[in-house]
UniProtKB/TrEMBL annotation:
<dbReference type="GO" id="GO:0005524">
    <property type="term" value="F:ATP binding"/>
</dbReference>
<keyword id="KW-0436">Ligase</keyword>
<dbReference type="InterPro" id="IPR020845">
    <property type="entry name" value="AMP-binding_CS"/>
</dbReference>
<dbReference type="InterPro" id="IPR042099">
    <property type="entry name" value="ANL_N_sf"/>
</dbReference>
<dbReference type="InterPro" id="IPR025110">
    <property type="entry name" value="AMP-bd_C"/>
</dbReference>
<protein>
    <recommendedName>
        <fullName>acetate--CoA ligase</fullName>
        <ecNumber>6.2.1.1</ecNumber>
    </recommendedName>
</protein>
<dbReference type="GO" id="GO:0006085">
    <property type="term" value="P:acetyl-CoA biosynthetic process"/>
</dbReference>
<dbReference type="Pfam" id="PF00501">
    <property type="entry name" value="AMP-binding"/>
</dbReference>
<dbReference type="Pfam" id="PF13193">
    <property type="entry name" value="AMP-binding_C"/>
</dbReference>
<dbReference type="InterPro" id="IPR045851">
    <property type="entry name" value="AMP-bd_C_sf"/>
</dbReference>
<feature type="domain" description="AMP-binding enzyme C-terminal">
    <location>
        <begin position="488"/>
        <end position="565"/>
    </location>
</feature>
<dbReference type="InterPro" id="IPR000873">
    <property type="entry name" value="AMP-dep_synth/lig_dom"/>
</dbReference>
<dbReference type="GO" id="GO:0003987">
    <property type="term" value="F:acetate-CoA ligase activity"/>
</dbReference>
<keyword id="KW-0547">Nucleotide-binding</keyword>
<keyword id="KW-0007">Acetylation</keyword>
<dbReference type="GO" id="GO:0005829">
    <property type="term" value="C:cytosol"/>
</dbReference>
<keyword id="KW-0067">ATP-binding</keyword>
Amino acid sequence: MQWSPIGKPASARRSANLTDYERARREFDWDRAATALSGLPGGGLNIAHEAVDRHAAGPRADHTALRWVDHSERVVELSYAELARRTSRFAALLRDLGLRKGDRVFTLLGRVPELYVAVLGALKAGCVVCPLFSAFGPEPIRQRLRLGEAAALVTSPGLYRGKVSGIRDEVPSLRHVLVTGADAGPSGDVLALEPALAAAGEDTGVAATSPDDPALLHFTSGTTGTPKGALHVHGAVLAHHVTAEYALDLRADDVFWCTADPGWVTGMSYGIIAPLTHGATLVSDEAEFDARRWYRVLAQQRVNVWYTAPTALRMLMRYGPELARSFDLSALRFVASVGEPLNPEVVLWGQEQFGLPVHDNWWQTETGAIMISNFAAVEVRPGSMGLPLPGIEACVLARDRDGKVLRVDGRVREVSDPATPGELALRAGWPSMFRAYWGEQRRYADCFADGWYLTGDIARRDADGYYWFLGRADDVIKSAGHLVGPFEVESTLLEHPSVAEAGVIGKPDDVAGELVKAFVTLRPGVTASEPLRRELLAFGRRRLGAVAPREIEFDQHLPHTRSGKVMRRLLRARELGLAEGDLSTLEAAR
């Protein structure tokens, strides 16, 4: 199906942060952009200073930095001045405990105020922050603590007792465990955070970090091997700041809500750092997804800019328009999505539901910040990732018959035909580009070729420069001479009124090489049946022709990562009876 672009009215173009995309791309310079940051008083750069202390020392000191909504919907607010005081106290505590610049401080917490204090305080101390999902089991926690050589862990008493105490002896580098609250419990070698902070020494200021000093370590799940630890530096804060301004249209007086889990890179880059660098108010909701509660948070907190996941938006779609219309969402100005490609019908649903299209954007843990986006004042092409950010150079590289990037005399070659897919690549050197895979130099080097970072994603670029995601290189299906992008098939199935979600894989076939098989979740009230299966197969053939699904299986519980992506590799493994690989990021059953 062809989706029409959603144009922007003149008023939107005038009011957006980025009003002239082509001019911004021509004139953008990272060094000039860096003047928006203050830098450390004695020279250098520190993420926490840019996010908190520089505001606390100026006219925004009393402005609300963090607005936290707890499970009972009680609201707690911290000003920039109070957040600066608490994070400095945490940094002093780490120094008292003997932690040094570069030591790894892990967090295993949900969305609670202590998380924000620990992350920013550790960065002030010059430590490297490594966030973990609070829903991880003991084994993925142990594995990451060992791989990252954790020096300290900040968690809750319940998470410590249930998931850490039994594996602590297997992490010899872990010298200190800090648990939230006033009582550390029965274990004498665990510190209760509240009294420890009260007894901490005086604030000695922000550590003298440079833009190239390590700051963040994000572990991403491998398909079969050990997790990869993507290392980012303090200089990444410049990309966080710029991309929030351009891709999220964020401003200092905005109330911003990023729903991402803090254990994921989005929950760190945009759930903590980016909005605070702008002096905005960051909303944090302790609870997990609930449609009525989410609409209530949007309405009661007067959220202006909302950054969420396609899975959550599709779940909201299931409730119909009546629920949303019962809340005052008039403060909402910009809606963006992240975590997986955004289906076109969700973009249009946003336009119908909120009077605002949902703006898709693309990036990875390795890129550290948004690289490609649909902007506020540029037409949205539903289903497209959008256009590269100013300061980012992207291209589509040709691949050989084995699916590897084509090299001729050591040089890569760009795809010239807009209809031809290839591997999405980015010119290396932007500020938030990861600097290493922790302890794996060869694995890191293999991500680059001829000055380009190879993303591992297959995409195409249309004649106007918009990028369209087809799938991960390992997900693209080769069927009877066709390259089939799973996302395109999934989006088409979602057009059917009975379908709530779909996951598509390639199934080996002696004749075609691979057949397209779809796993389909039905909308509430729809019953799986053989007539419906035949109807969906016919629907796919009408829309997609030769690349339509040949098999459809109903599945009301598709496996997702905690960032919202359908785990196609897990569907494929289960279908073919293969090893399921690393399941540490598998989302718990809804």
